[in-house]
Design brief:
By secondary structure, this protein is of the alpha/beta class. It contains six helices and 17 strands. The strands form four sheets. It has an eight-stranded mixed beta sheet with strand order 1-16-17-15-12-9-10-11. A five-stranded mixed beta sheet has the order 2-3-4-5-6, with no helix packed on it. A hairpin with a 4-residue loop joins β16 and β17. The chain starts with a strand and ends with a strand.
């Protein structure tokens, strides 16, 4: 497992009882977490600014102890706008800092022009990292709201003059069109959900569509690509992701790496698992 250890503006103070007690900058949240199945009395009865309550019927709601419109946190010299969203989210996944660091290092060390395709690109954290490292980016998400949020984050980091295209589109249809256009990318990254709907109502299912999408993306890799990265929170095993890579990769690669990502829990020196990442590295 790879663990984020340098995110000073974010901390999981305690976790357990299917919850996590977190500090985001100067904001304290208590949110559900399905993997925190152990018991810990330190999770509750703390200073908290907002609590997300899950409903037995699905979804849930925020209970705010103080007014929270939006706020900003930093990771090194990067800045991200946060706000309360439906289904407990804030617009950022701090565990992804492991992958942000890898992305920026690979772009910087390439010492050449790098084109990045970011699929299911959400609020743009990875796109910002790629721009910061000197790459050009195509940022694709099916939600117009997420695209607008990503634009705000790009502006927040003073990167609005850097080469980035934002597209509200169904990811699979976009990839198919890019293949027909003959466009190529040196890096392809994706963070697909378990289930979702495209810009025109297209249905995405990770189990049914991930293999085909990764296979299609092979046609978008440049003649000298750096890597293809897939991150997922769906519960897929590392072995499943590795098998998909081995069956879809059409060219010689240096290595395939799969790993869990996690966040440290301050109380009791524990680690919270936060999904898996797989990388096919070509150079």
């Amino acid at each position: 497992m790879k663990i984020v250890k340098d995110f000073k503006d974010y901390e999981i103070i305690a976790a357990g009882n299917f919850q996590k007690y977190e500090k985001w900058g100067n904001v304290y949240l208590l949110r559900p977490d399905p993997v925190a199945i152990w018991l810990d009395d330190d999770v509750e009865n703390n200073k908290v600014d907002a609590i997300y309550h899950r409903s037995n019927k699905g979804g849930g709601y925020w209970e705010n102890k103080k007014e929270l419109n939006s706020w900003v946190i930093s990771y090194h010299d990067l800045k991200f706008k946060l706000k309360q969203m439906g289904f407990k989210h804030t617009g950022l996944f701090p565990e992804q800092a492991i992958n942000w660091n890898y992305l920026m290092e690979k772009i910087t060390k390439a010492n050449r022009e790098i084109k990045v395709l970011n699929l299911f690109a959400y609020t743009g954290a990875a796109s910002i990292c790629a721009l910061k490292a000197g790459a050009s980016v195509v940022h694709v998400d099916s939600s117009r709201g997420m695209i607008e949020w990503a634009k705000e984050n790009v502006k927040l980091n003073n990167l609005e003059t850097k080469p980035i295209r934002f597209l509200v589109d169904d990811v699979k249809k976009f990839v198919q069109r890019e293949i027909r256009r003959g466009n190529k990318y040196d890096i392809i990254i994706m963070d697909p959900p378990s289930y979702g709907k495209g810009a025109s109502g297209e249905v995405w299912s990770l189990e049914n569509d991930l293999y085909d999408l990764i296979l299609l993306c092979q046609n978008l890799l440049s003649d000298n690509p750096l890597f293809l990265m897939v991150n997922t929170y769906s519960g897929l095993s590392l072995s499943v992701l590795e098998n998909i890579f081995k069956l879809t990769t059409k060219r010689v690669y240096q290595k395939i790496e799969t790993y869990e990502i996690g966040l440290p829990i301050t109380k009791h020196n524990l680690v919270l698992p936060c999904g898996i990442t797989g990388i096919v590295e070509y150079e």
